[in-house]
Amino acid sequence: MAVVFMDVGQxxxxxxxxxxxxxxxxxxxxxxxxxxxxxxxxxxxxxxxxGDNTPPVLHVRIVPGDKVDIMVSPKGFGSENMSQxxxxxxxxxxxxxxxxxxxxxxxxxxxxxxxxIVGVGIGGTMEMAAILAKRMTARSIDQPNPDPRYAALExxxxxxxxxxxxxxxxxxxxxxxxxxxxxxxxxxxxxEFEPARQRLFR
Length: 202
Prior knowledge:
The chain is about 35% helix and about 25% strand. By secondary structure, the protein is α/β, with parallel strands linked by helices. It folds into 2 domains: about 1-75, no CATH class; about 75-195, CATH 3.30.1330. The strands form 2 sheets. Strands 4, 5, 6, 7 and 8 form a 5-stranded mixed β-sheet that branches. The longest helix is centred in the middle third of the chain and has 16 residues, at about 95-110. The protein is globular, with a radius of gyration of 18 Å. Residues about 165-180 have low confidence and may be disordered.
C-alpha cells in the first residue's frame, strides 16, 4: 500500500484533482516498477484486488511557501499489523509511555520483518498520534529530537528495546522518534513499525 505525505505550500495553485493526480502516479509507479499490488476494493465485503494499488493513503499539510514536498512510503502489512495505539492518561507519564512502547515491541517480536525502524507519536488525538508515529519513521536515523527532554526519552526507549530480549534484529532498531502534541486530558501514544525493506521516496 502506498502512503503519501504531501506538504503543499500555501502559495501553490494546483489545477485539477490532486487526489486523482497522486493516484495516477501511484498507479503508474506500481505498474512500471513491477511492485506488488495488494489493495482491495472494499475492506470487508469485496476483497477483490484493485490491480494497481489505488487508492493510496494521502496525507496533506498546508505549509508556508511556494513548493510541494512529496514523500512516498510503500507499506507492507507485516509491519503495519504490529502497530499499536493506546489511550493513556496524563498520570501514566513517562513511565507509562516507556512501558507501553517496550511492550508493543516485545509483542511484535519478529513479525514486522526486522530489523525495524520504530516511530512513536505522542499526543493530540488518536489519529494525530498515529500519523505522527508514521511520519517519525521517515526521519533521519541520526537526527535526535531537538528537545533535549525528548532526546533523552528516545535514548531511554532505545535502551529498553535493546534490553527486551526479543532478538538481535529487533534490538537493533534504528530509531525511536517522539513528537509532542499535548492535551490537558489525554496522553495518546502510537507505535509504528517500518520493516527492514523500508523504502522512502521524495
